[in-house]
Amino acid sequence: MSSGVRILVVDDNPAVRHYLRSLLEQQNTWRVCDEARTGSEALQRVKKNPPDMILLDFQMPDLNGLDVARQISQLFPEIPILMVTIHLSKQLAEEAQRAGIRGACAKSDVGSIVEAVDALLHQQTYFPSMTSMGD
Questions:
Q1: Of these four, 4, 43, 130, 131, which has the most CB atoms within 10 Å of its CB?
Q2: Alpha-carbon gap, residue 17 to 14, rounded angstroms
Protein backbone atom coordinates (compact mmCIF):
# COMPACT_ATOMS: atom_id res chain seq x y z
CA MET A 1 0.00 0.00 0.00
CA SER A 2 2.29 2.74 -1.21
CA SER A 3 -0.46 5.36 -1.24
CA GLY A 4 -1.10 4.74 2.43
CA VAL A 5 -4.01 3.49 4.44
CA ARG A 6 -7.17 5.56 3.97
CA ILE A 7 -9.08 6.00 7.23
CA LEU A 8 -12.56 7.44 7.76
CA VAL A 9 -13.06 9.13 11.14
CA VAL A 10 -16.64 9.26 12.44
CA ASP A 11 -17.42 11.39 15.51
CA ASP A 12 -19.99 14.10 16.18
CA ASN A 13 -17.45 16.25 18.04
CA PRO A 14 -15.17 18.30 15.72
CA ALA A 15 -12.46 18.54 18.40
CA VAL A 16 -12.37 14.75 18.73
CA ARG A 17 -12.22 14.31 14.94
CA HIS A 18 -9.31 16.78 14.82
CA TYR A 19 -7.54 14.97 17.68
CA LEU A 20 -7.99 11.55 16.03
CA ARG A 21 -6.85 12.87 12.65
CA SER A 22 -3.63 14.35 14.09
CA LEU A 23 -2.99 11.17 16.08
CA LEU A 24 -3.46 8.89 13.05
CA GLU A 25 -1.52 11.06 10.64
CA GLN A 26 1.56 10.90 12.84
CA GLN A 27 1.96 7.43 11.30
CA ASN A 28 3.70 7.75 7.92
CA THR A 29 1.47 5.37 6.01
CA TRP A 30 -1.90 6.38 7.45
CA ARG A 31 -4.05 9.24 6.30
CA VAL A 32 -7.56 10.36 7.17
CA CYS A 33 -9.34 10.38 3.81
CA ASP A 34 -12.64 11.69 5.16
CA GLU A 35 -14.60 12.62 8.26
CA ALA A 36 -18.26 12.19 9.16
CA ARG A 37 -20.27 13.81 11.93
CA THR A 38 -23.21 11.39 12.14
CA GLY A 39 -23.92 7.73 11.56
CA SER A 40 -25.96 8.34 8.42
CA GLU A 41 -23.26 10.65 7.05
CA ALA A 42 -20.73 7.87 7.67
CA LEU A 43 -22.85 5.38 5.73
CA GLN A 44 -23.13 7.76 2.77
CA ARG A 45 -19.37 8.38 2.77
CA VAL A 46 -18.54 4.66 2.93
CA LYS A 47 -20.94 3.80 0.09
CA LYS A 48 -19.53 6.58 -2.09
CA ASN A 49 -15.85 5.98 -1.41
CA PRO A 50 -15.06 2.95 0.79
CA PRO A 51 -12.02 3.59 3.03
CA ASP A 52 -9.46 0.98 4.12
CA MET A 53 -10.54 1.36 7.72
CA ILE A 54 -13.10 3.17 9.90
CA LEU A 55 -12.73 4.77 13.33
CA LEU A 56 -16.24 4.99 14.69
CA ASP A 57 -17.63 6.78 17.73
CA PHE A 58 -20.27 4.94 19.74
CA GLN A 59 -22.53 7.83 20.75
CA MET A 60 -23.76 10.02 17.89
CA PRO A 61 -26.83 12.22 17.38
CA ASP A 62 -28.68 9.85 15.02
CA LEU A 63 -27.58 6.21 14.81
CA ASN A 64 -25.25 4.76 17.41
CA GLY A 65 -21.95 3.17 16.44
CA LEU A 66 -23.32 -0.36 16.69
CA ASP A 67 -26.14 0.36 14.21
CA VAL A 68 -23.72 1.99 11.79
CA ALA A 69 -21.24 -0.89 12.14
CA ARG A 70 -23.95 -3.50 11.44
CA GLN A 71 -24.92 -1.76 8.20
CA ILE A 72 -21.32 -1.22 7.05
CA SER A 73 -20.37 -4.81 7.92
CA GLN A 74 -23.22 -6.11 5.75
CA LEU A 75 -22.20 -3.94 2.79
CA PHE A 76 -18.42 -4.09 3.19
CA PRO A 77 -17.44 -6.99 5.46
CA GLU A 78 -13.79 -6.52 4.51
CA ILE A 79 -13.47 -3.00 6.01
CA PRO A 80 -12.18 -3.20 9.60
CA ILE A 81 -14.04 -1.00 12.08
CA LEU A 82 -12.52 0.28 15.32
CA MET A 83 -14.95 1.71 17.83
CA VAL A 84 -13.62 4.56 19.96
CA THR A 85 -15.76 5.52 22.91
CA ILE A 86 -15.58 7.45 26.16
CA HIS A 87 -17.28 4.70 28.16
CA LEU A 88 -15.88 1.33 27.16
CA SER A 89 -17.47 -1.54 29.07
CA LYS A 90 -17.30 -5.29 28.78
CA GLN A 91 -20.94 -5.39 27.64
CA LEU A 92 -20.36 -2.74 24.96
CA ALA A 93 -17.24 -4.55 23.71
CA GLU A 94 -19.23 -7.80 23.40
CA GLU A 95 -22.06 -6.05 21.54
CA ALA A 96 -19.49 -4.40 19.27
CA GLN A 97 -18.02 -7.79 18.36
CA ARG A 98 -21.50 -9.09 17.49
CA ALA A 99 -22.08 -6.02 15.29
CA GLY A 100 -19.00 -6.82 13.22
CA ILE A 101 -16.63 -4.38 14.90
CA ARG A 102 -13.09 -5.78 15.06
CA GLY A 103 -11.75 -3.59 17.84
CA ALA A 104 -12.71 -1.15 20.57
CA CYS A 105 -10.78 1.27 22.72
CA ALA A 106 -11.26 4.27 24.95
CA LYS A 107 -10.78 7.74 23.47
CA SER A 108 -8.66 8.67 26.46
CA ASP A 109 -6.13 5.91 25.78
CA VAL A 110 -4.05 7.44 22.99
CA GLY A 111 -1.57 4.57 22.85
CA SER A 112 -4.25 1.96 22.48
CA ILE A 113 -5.84 3.79 19.52
CA VAL A 114 -2.64 3.57 17.47
CA GLU A 115 -2.06 -0.02 18.64
CA ALA A 116 -5.64 -0.98 17.75
CA VAL A 117 -5.53 0.54 14.26
CA ASP A 118 -2.28 -1.31 13.61
CA ALA A 119 -3.75 -4.61 14.84
CA LEU A 120 -6.87 -4.27 12.67
CA LEU A 121 -4.81 -3.41 9.61
CA HIS A 122 -2.98 -6.71 10.16
CA GLN A 123 -6.25 -8.69 10.21
CA GLN A 124 -6.24 -8.97 13.98
CA THR A 125 -8.85 -7.91 16.51
CA TYR A 126 -8.27 -5.51 19.39
CA PHE A 127 -10.32 -5.59 22.55
CA PRO A 128 -8.67 -4.46 25.80
CA SER A 129 -8.41 -7.21 28.37
CA MET A 130 -11.91 -7.68 29.65
CA THR A 131 -10.63 -8.25 33.16
CA SER A 132 -9.56 -4.62 33.47
CA MET A 133 -13.05 -3.37 32.57
CA GLY A 134 -16.15 -3.02 34.68
CA ASP A 135 -19.51 -4.26 33.42
A1: 43
A2: 5
| Host domain of residue 10 | 5-128
* Residue-level pLDDT, tens digit, the chain, 135 residues: 446 999 999 999 999 999 999 999 999 999 999 999 999 999 999 999 999 999 999 998 899 999 999 999 999 999 999 999 988 899 999 999 999 999 999 988 888 999 999 999 999 999 976 545 544
d(CA 36, CA 44): 9
CATH classification of the domain holding 59: 3.40.50.2300
pTM above 0.85, yes or no: yes
